[in-house]
Amino acid sequence: MATAPSAWIAEHTGLIAKGGAVLDLACGSGRHTRLLLERGHPMTAIDRDIGRLADLLGHENLTARAVDLEDGSAWPFPGPWFDGIVVTNYLHRPLFPAIVATLAPGGVLLYETFARGNERFGRPRNPDHLLAEGELLRMVAGHLHVIAYQHGEVSAPRRAVVQRICAARSTDDRTSPAYRLRG
């Protein structure tokens, strides 16, 4: 069974357009996929192994795909543009540009993962898997408007150092490929 959704993610999902398509990137057990399906969003859930989504497979509003995001393959979404993208407890920096580019005008990015300092509390400890201070802010700079950002130590669901961002693309972002495809 999936663990409870992140409070940060749950708090900000209301910013995603009602009924908007959402990508749960590196979805794991699908805790956020489940939350957003319950809230009426068509979901695309991807992970290297989608076996933990077995009870959801066949859901009319779910597309689940087994995708290795780190094998050097092309980004699997060259055409669809999402109204929301959720990423938690996952970091593969080469994907940053594709994640940002995949948001539709008005789309919302909800990203939460471990940051430097977390090695005091457990895994991950490898600096390659820990965000530097302000790294998510730099990822979206010039592309998305920051709605909320946090960096620091948390005590729940366990002690950790995390970085979180909620950022959105302007609804009239004429630089977005999605804008150019409209109309």
Task: Explain this structure.
This protein has a single domain, classed as Rossmann fold (3-Layer(aba) Sandwich), CATH 3.40.50. Helices cover 17% and strands 28% of the residues. α2 links the parallel β1 and β2. The C terminus is likely disordered.
Radius of gyration from the alpha-carbon trace, in angstroms: 16 Å
Give the helix proportion (percent range).
Answer: 10-25%
Whole-number total of structural domains: 1
CATH class: Alpha Beta
Distance between the termini: 42 Å
CATH superfamily: Vaccinia Virus protein VP39
Please give the number of β-strands: 7
Biggest β-sheet description: 7 strands, mixed
Q: Which regions contain 5 or more consecutive residues with pLDDT less than 50? A: 176-183
Q: Given the structure, what is the number of helices?
A: 5
CATH architecture assignment: 3-Layer(aba) Sandwich
Mean pLDDT: 90
List the helices and strands and how they pair.
Blueprint: H1 7-12, E1 22-25, H2 31-38, E2 43-47, E3 62-66, E4 82-88, H3 96-101, E5 103-114, H4 135-140, E6 145-154, E7 160-168, H5 177-181
Parallel strand pairs: 1-2, 1-4, 2-3, 4-5
Antiparallel strand pairs: 5-7, 6-7
List keywords for this structure.
alpha/beta; Rossmann fold; seven-stranded mixed sheet; 5 helices; 7 strands; globular
Concise summary:
This protein has helices at 7-12, 31-38, 96-101, 135-140, 177-181; strands at residues 22-25, 43-47, 62-66, 82-88, 103-114, 145-154, 160-168. With 183 residues, it is α/β, with parallel strands linked by helices. It has a single domain, classed as Rossmann fold (3-Layer(aba) Sandwich), CATH 3.40.50.
